[in-house]
Write a structure and sequence with these properties.
By secondary structure, the protein is an alpha/beta fold. The protein is built from 13 helices and 14 strands. It has a domain at about 305-410: Four Helix Bundle (Hemerythrin (Met), subunit A). A hairpin with a 2-residue loop joins strand 6 and strand 7 (about 160). The mean pLDDT is about 95. It binds 5'-O-(N-(L-cysteinyl)-sulfamoyl)adenosine and zinc ion (ZN). 5'-O-(N-(L-cysteinyl)-sulfamoyl)adenosine binds near residues 60, 277 and 280.
């Protein structure tokens, strides 16, 4: 499907360092230097299930991985970025049913709103933006590879994946079996289903149910399971051993573990690094569509909030930390954006060169945006002379810092 319009990004005169990311699988800060001979980094980030508007939690995750995309580019790489849209799944069908709209219409409407939100937040668009529905042939082909590997069995008319077929199962999340069993039912799993070989086995193909959409397949009419969807889309656009699989930390298990398992059993390697964004809370709980404690990006935009202030709130939290949204942070960011614009409007300012190098360096080291924001604030303070001693010694400072903010942090001021 169509992605959103990507913002143009200034290229910087200074090249940033190679990027290192915290890898969930190894628990270590890991260099993510593309192995492709053509110097291209390959990124997959799990996309939305479009049954409701984009909330600040989604936005935080996509802005987090946008920093990775930008850090790679600033280090001199090109980036191939794939993202899915889970445009058919239980929550979407349930919501469509509940509000009495056609599920296709609901998915299209919410996906369009997501595109507008991403554009407003200046998130670079993926190279491939791919829906589950349009990927059904890919899913079928991958299930057939799993069948050939002997990792698929039937429960009634549904197809299941045997987790024991992957000797590396568990290597991505590093969870114990007990922990997996506890999490699984809360994240779409069905450990209690009779007829399964292992309670952790997951659905690959869900046979048609009355009133649900279905597509023909060699296994009978039905629709794709969730984990095989991302496995198939990632493999199609990025190939095996791509650089980074990303998403929120709620996807560590089972989603990313299962997708990796599918691909291993099919005979390929999945991601080299698994990176996860922290969860944003609101009113004391994880912001989630199912709980309804939501702050929508579109609602903030509709109340004339500058999207750059929204983005600054997100940048002030490290992508891996869990944090809670408050309106006070937004109001503070609105003030800061105003102050930064004032500093930039002077043209001259404190020396910009060291700020550029330091910002690129902290971002390359596990995307430390809060440190980058502090460095920019230091330049703003020096330029405006909060101590009464304004420094305007660098005649090109404002232009340099403006480009840096735009290219590295996605803030166009
Ligand atoms: N369609 C699947 C992924 S294939 C899905 O999880 N969709 S979602 O709409 O529920 O979430 C979209 C992205 O936002 C995922 O990467 C998810 O991990 C992330 N996310 C969801 N809730 C939050 C939150 N409260 N804070 C941060 N990130 C979140
Ligand atoms: Zn996914």
């Amino acid at each position: 499907m169509r992605a959103w319009t990507t913002p143009d990004v200034p290229s910087l005169a200074v090249r940033g360092p190679e990027v290192a990311l915290h890898d969930t699988a190894s628990g270590a800060l890991t260099p993510v230097v593309p192995q492709d001979p053509d110097n291209t980094a390959r990124l997959y980030v799990c996309g939305i299930t479009p049954y409701d508007a984009t909330h600040i939690g989604h936005a935080a995750t996509y802005v987090g991985f946008d920093l990775l995309n930008r850090a790679w580019r600033n280090a001199g790489h090109s980036v191939v970025y794939a993202q899915n849209v889970t445009d058919v799944d239980d929550p979407l069908l349930e919501r469509a049913d509940k509000v009495g709209v056609d599920w296709v219409e609901l998915a299209e409407r919410e996906t369009e709103l997501f595109r507008e939100d991403m554009e407003a937040l200046r998130v670079l668009a993926p190279t491939y933006y791919t829906g589950a529905v349009e990927s059904i042939p890919l899913v079928i082909a991958l299930i057939e590879r799993l069948q050939a590997a002997g990792a698929v069995y039937r429960v009634d008319d549904d197809l299941y994946f045997s987790v024991t077929a992957d000797p590396d199962f568990g290597a991505e999340s590093n969870l114990t079996r007990e922990q997996m069993l506890e999490i699984f039912p809360n994240r779409g799993g069905d450990p209690e289903r009779a007829g399964k070989k292992d309670p952790l086995d997951c659905v690959l193909w869900r046979a048609e149910r009355p009133g649900e959409p279905s597509w023909p397949s060699p296994f009978g009419p039905g629709r794709p399971g969730w984990h095989i969807e991302c496995a198939a889309i990632a493999l199609e656009h990025l190939g095996g051993s791509f650089d980074v699989q990303g998403g929120g930390s709620d996807l560590v298990f089972p989603h990313h573990e299962m997708s990796a398992g599918h691909v291993h059993v099919a005979g390929d390697a999945f991601a080299r690094v698994y990176a996860h964004a922290g969860m944003v809370a609101y009113d004391g709980e994880k912001m989630s569509k199912s709980k309804g404690n939501l702050v929508f990006v579109s609602a903030l935009r509709n109340s004339e909030i500058d999207p750059m202030a929204i983005r600054l709130v997100l940048l002030r939290h490290h992508y891996r930390s869990d944090w809670e949204w408050t309106d006070a942070q937004l109001f503070d960011a609105v003030d800061t954006v105003g102050q930064w614009r004032r500093a930039l409007s002077l043209g001259r300012g404190a020396p910009a060169g060291p700020v550029v190098e330091d910002v690129l360096e902290v971002l390359a080291a596990d995307l430390d945006a809060p440190a980058a924001v502090e460095l920019v604030q230091g330049w703003v303070d020096a330029t405006l002379g909060s101590d009464g001693l304004a420094d305007t010694s660098d005649p090109t400072a404002a232009a340099t810092i403006r480009d840096l903010l735009d290219a590295a942090l996605g803030l166009r001021l």
